[in-house]
Design brief:
98 residues, mainly beta, four-stranded mixed sheet, two-stranded antiparallel sheet, 1 helix, 6 strands
């Protein structure tokens, strides 16, 4: 999880494992403080930490970046997250909008 990341972005190996045609997705250029990169968005269902959500997830256009990020849009905006530092505990649940 990365609370500073705007979107969920995963490596190309994840797209390949899901059988996605990477280039058929929504192309987006991302700019960071010191560089930029291309990625392709696909609608997928994420299952993480016991919570399932359907989201638009971006996949790096090339294999040079080996990182997977659960960001704000598509993940953190769909869960309830609680941190208790003193007990070293994290609580996570689906954010039910109903």
């Amino acid at each position: 999880m990365d609370t500073g990341a705007s979107f969920c972005i995963f490596g190309t190996e994840i797209a390949e494992a899901l059988g996605l045609d990477l280039a058929s997705g929504i192309r987006k250029r991302f700019q960071t403080a010191n560089s930029g990169f291309e990625a392709y968005g696909h609608g997928v269902e994420i299952h993480a930490f016991g919570v399932a959500t359907h989201s638009l997830i971006y996949f790096f256009a090339g294999p040079l970046i080996d990182k997977n990020v659960l960001g704000r849009t598509g993940w953190l905006d769909r869960i309830r997250l609680g941190l208790i530092h003193h007990d070293n505990k994290i609580y996570l649940a689906s954010y039910d909008l109903a």
